[in-house]
Amino acid sequence: MTCQECGERPATLHFTKIINGEKTEIHICEKCAKEKGEAEPGTNHFSIHNLLSGLLNFETPIGDSPAQSFYKQQQTNCPKCGISYQQFTKIGRFGCSVCYKTFADKLDPILKKVHGGNTAHTGKVPTRAGAAIQIERKVQNLRSKMKEYIELEEFEKAAETRDIIRSLEQRTSWEGGE
Amino acid sequence: MSLQRFISEAVSPWMKDEGPDSDIVMSSRVRFARNLKNYVFPILSDREQNLEVIKEVRSEFNDVPDDHIGELELLEMEDLKPIEKRVLVEKHLISRNLIEQSKNGAVLLSENETVSIMVNEEDHFRIQCLVAGFELKKAFNLANSLDDWIESKVDYAFDERRGYLTSCPTNVGTGMRASVMLHLPALVLTQQLNHIIPAINQLGLVVRGSYGEGSEALGNIFQISNQITLGKTETDIIEDLQGVVMQVIEKERAARRALLDNSRIELEDRVYRSLGILENSRIIQSKEAAKCLSDVRLGIDLGLVKGLSKSILTELLILTQPGFLQQFAGASLTPTERDIKRATLIRERLELEYQLSKKSEGDEQ
Questions:
Q1: Domain of A42?
Q2: In terms of residue numbers, what domain contains B86?
Q3: How far does the CA of residue A158 sit from the closest CA of chain B (Å)?
Q4: Which residue intervals define the domain UVR in the entry (chain A) (predicted)?
Q5: DSSP calls for B298-338
Q6: pLDDT digits over A136-166, tens only?
């Protein structure tokens, strides 16, 4: 195959762009790719949402395959905003914060792809919303400690830990009730 | 303060500061994407809900968040003329998205234009801090304190496992995008950038043109930003970006030195030809103007061109964008009329600069 730009050198770079379902194939040589710039990897001109929905569509069948009707039957809609997973794959964006829970089981592979293998947040925690989370984390730690104590048959310490957990949990339920 | 002030001054006050490494780094920016817990995201919400958000902002966000930035002014997109909106985009204060796709979009702007908080864009809030030079930490600290300020007033959509919840899963987690705007003429001229960009991409960072996603690198200005927002702390993201940018700066400086050492006369020729075009042309397209401005700025940084201030590239690149040209003309212009206006504006701006520098020389003597 010869380069479609200069028609001289052999094409060594092959790109397939799919933008809004429209497929374009580009076959060019390295020299023309450099000159064109836009064909260079990493300088693609279409938006992140297009790219992303490309990634997402990968998981759902395209076209009228029998599998699609299967997916349709399975379709779940977000209880808060009503968006379906298929709508999400089309626009590449969620409709509300509850979507993250609704589509939780499909989320990990997507997040891994976009965020270099990461699926969990390790950064800033908001102070107000975070107060409950800090306590929750503490309770979780204490629970596993309590289990350890029970396994070691140190029941007195286990009981102490249980009381601390109770008082912490009470505090969060008060705050939640406000 | 009137909107007129924002617009009549093409150069945001912060741009006049010369930050660290200002020979290469034009600006540093940090933005946080944040959403309200109890509202659906702006892409799905209707006008009524968006108006409620704006109402909340109007009534709750009245105090001064930080002594250094002064008061914030709320501008609603509906109240602005198309040209005024375009000018705000060209100054990087709002996104194109806010104008084209948002229902009831608005922006909170600080007096010095360092802070802009977009409301009802893709997310409910986009907190942005822009500072001159290579100062990511400064921009981050400011954005962080504004984030705390907003969080004291509203309930954020936050999930323990996923972090700050955003409309697009590419922003979830920290919701933070940090970016640095770099002028890299020598790396482009020596064709080294083609090799550097793929390497940068492999580190979870992105290189783009100066107007963000999908834009061309006008005037050899590139933006490097983090792609990954989840699973890394804000500090790690900033430090990783800083490390890479530092290396790019070193490479650009080395390339500039090499050009001076090996092909000084060719470089001088290029710089002075471009200066000649800017001083004399009567019709100039934005692409050519950007190229010439980039050459001249390189000449200033290398000490080849005297009597022109460094900020001229930043200033004229913004001033010669279509929105600004039409703002100056006070009317909408055809592309040809724009090219004529652009050439006039550049000539006048350079003339003013020469007068000023002559005057200051006279004062010194």
A1: 13-46
A2: 1-8+31-157
A3: 27
A4: 136-171
A5: HHHHTTSS-S--TTHHHHHHHHTSHHHHHHHHTS---HHHH
A6: 778 888 898 999 999 999 999 999 999 988 8
